[in-house]
């Protein structure tokens, strides 16, 4: 009996040591301000502002994340909506829904450029342009 227990234990040990761990995937996110206006992004969760970031003219916000077994898709923050404020006066809100009546939405992956650059590395870019600023004016 003890010999069979040793054999079973050895087999279990060998099988469990052969389990392959999921590789870690690394993602970089760049949110660039290519407008002639300072931009502030205010992120909301359940109607409450929970985070904000400021991006000066011709500058970028850079973030990164790692995840085992997959790639975190954009955006690099957790929110249900983001208010984009240009020069502290003009604003437009991006919601985490499809079908919103705006040209691009920071929550939709198709509004981001980039993707896989190697097997385990991703790079995404979201570029605010003068079109985004003009759309915010038009939606007021």
How does this model look, in words?
The chain is an alpha+beta fold. The protein has a single domain (22-139), classed as Immunoglobulin-like, CATH 2.60.40. It is built from two helices and eight strands. It has helices spanning 2-17, 130-139; strands spanning 24-33, 39-45, 48-55, 60-68, 81-86, 90-95, 113-118, 121-128. It has a four-stranded mixed β-sheet with strand order 4-1-8-7. A four-stranded antiparallel β-sheet has the order 3-2-5-6. Strand 7 and strand 8 (121-128) form a beta hairpin. It is elongated, with a radius of gyration of 22 Å. The termini are far apart.
- The name CATH uses for the topology is Immunoglobulin-like
Query: Would you tell me the overall average pLDDT?
Result: 87
The description of the largest β-sheet is: 4 strands, mixed
Output the helix-strand order. Answer: HEEEEEEEEH
Features:
single chain; 140 residues; alpha+beta; 43% strand
In short:
This protein has a single domain (22-139), classed as Immunoglobulin-like.
Topology of this structure?
Layout: H1 2-17, E1 24-33, E2 39-45, E3 48-55, E4 60-68, E5 81-86, E6 90-95, E7 113-118, E8 121-128, H2 130-139
Parallel strand pairs: 1-8
Antiparallel strand pairs: 1-4, 2-3, 2-5, 5-6, 7-8
């Amino acid at each position: 009996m003890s010999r069979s227990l040793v054999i079973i234990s050895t087999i279990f040990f060998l099988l469990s040591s052969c389990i392959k761990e999921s590789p870690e995937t690394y993602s970089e996110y760049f949110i660039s301000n290519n407008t002639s206006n300072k931009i502030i992004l205010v992120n909301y969760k359940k109607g409450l502002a929970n985070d904000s970031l400021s991006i000066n003219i011709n500058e970028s916000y850079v973030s990164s994340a790692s995840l085992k077994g997959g790639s975190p898709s954009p955006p690099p923050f957790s929110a249900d909506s983001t208010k984009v404020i240009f020069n502290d006066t003009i604003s437009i809100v991006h919601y985490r829904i499809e079908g919103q009546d705006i040209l691009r939405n920071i929550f939709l992956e198709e509004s981001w450029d980039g993707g896989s650059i190697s097997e385990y590395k991703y790079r995404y870019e979201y570029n605010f342009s003068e079109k985004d600023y003009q759309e915010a004016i038009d939606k007021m």
